[in-house]
Design goal:
The two termini are 20 Å apart. 29% of the residues are buried. Strand 7, helix 5 and strand 8 form a beta-alpha-beta unit. The chain has two domains: 207 residues, 3-Layer(aba) Sandwich (Rossmann fold), CATH 3.40.50; 60 residues, Alpha-Beta Plaits, CATH 3.30.70. It is of the alpha/beta class. The chain contains ten helices and 14 strands. It is 37% helix and 24% strand. The chain has a six-stranded mixed beta sheet, sandwiched between helices. The protein has a four-stranded antiparallel beta sheet with strand order 12-13-11-14.
Length: 292
């Protein structure tokens, strides 16, 4: 996708299947919002096309698509009821269907008392709930979620997680974007990471972790940190309040670390883990930034 001579998104290609939650990630300005707009048919790609069940995406698909943007875009002088009625009618839903679905979601999110309140009277967390309801009032087959957990406490985050899982179970295709990569790991199997419009990483999360090779070892026990640091292939050793974390360049190094740890006393824990998605993101995107 080009804006004049500026390429916002370059050679991006992926496929989402019904019932799949797909992760679209990147730093601010990476091209995520442009990609969302192309998926929805709001922007025409400079090259290539976006297909929805084999057809070019466009206005005729809008009733089956839901989009929750990162920035709150609610009409704050409207009541919750009037706003959802307005947005639901844009999806060609009847008032009876809209109000029935609204009552369901207000009950599910525990905010039935706000139905006739103006949006501006709601807390940020409750506005986020209304934003979600506005995106799903049409029971979308394709649901785009940009930072859906922003501003939510742990209890309300769990409510959102359960709702998203329910849409997945009913076969919706979900494109999920978040800077909170722990959520991405828990939801998504396939991901794309963009940086400055270019694909940095793409594929199945487990394959990405295996290809990255770096791992970390968590140890609880009496170990000498300097001995660990001097083992070839150990990248870093860190002592926190509970355990020692040893980052290594490949799984082969874990054998050398284990040989040493097996000679130590009071070892209560020795776990080898793949690198987290967050660590891979920082390593890959950081290297790209250094070259630019």
């Amino acid at each position: 996708m080009k804006y004049g001579d500026f390429i916002a998104v370059h050679d991006l290609s992926f496929t989402i299947s019904p019932g799949e939650i797909f992760g679209l990630l990147g730093t601010n300005g990476a091209g995520k919002t442009t990609t969302f707009r192309m998926i929805m048919g709001l922007l025409e790609p400079s090259r290539g096309e976006v297909l929805y069940f084999g057809e070019k995406v466009g206005y005729h698909n809008v009733n089956e698509i839901g989009y929750m943007i990162e920035e709150r875009s609610l009409l704050t002088k409207y009541t919750v009821k009037d706003l959802i009625l307005f947005l639901g009618r844009l999806k060609d839903l009847s008032p009876d269907v809209i109000l029935k679905r609204l009552d369901y979601w207000l009950e599910r999110f525990g905010i039935t008392e706000y139905k006739d309140k103006k949006i501006k009277e709601l807390s940020k967390g409750n506005q986020q709930k209304i934003q979600f309801i506005s995106a799903v009032i049409n029971n979308p087959k394709l649901l785009l979620l940009d930072e859906p957990f922003s501003g939510l406490d742990p209890i309300n985050t769990q409510l959102f997680e359960e709702a998203i899982r329910d849409f997945q179970k009913q076969g919706s295709m979900i494109v999920f974007s978040s800077h909170q990569l722990d959520y991405v790991e828990s939801f998504c199997e396939q991901i794309v990471i963009l940086e400055r419009g270019h694909v940095v990483i793409s594929g199945h999360i487990n394959d990405i972790k295996r290809d990255f090779k770096r791992q970390k070892i968590k140890i609880i026990g009496d170990v000498d940190l300097d001995v660990l640091r001097n083992i070839k292939g150990v990248l870093s050793v860190k002592q926190n309040a509970k355990e020692v974390i040893v980052k290594i360049e490949s799984e082969e190094v874990a054998e050398e670390v284990f040989r040493y740890v097996s000679t130590c006393k009071n070892i209560k824990k020795y776990d080898v883990e793949m690198a987290s998605l967050s660590e891979i993101f920082v390593a890959k995107v950081g290297k790209l930034d250094e070259k630019i």
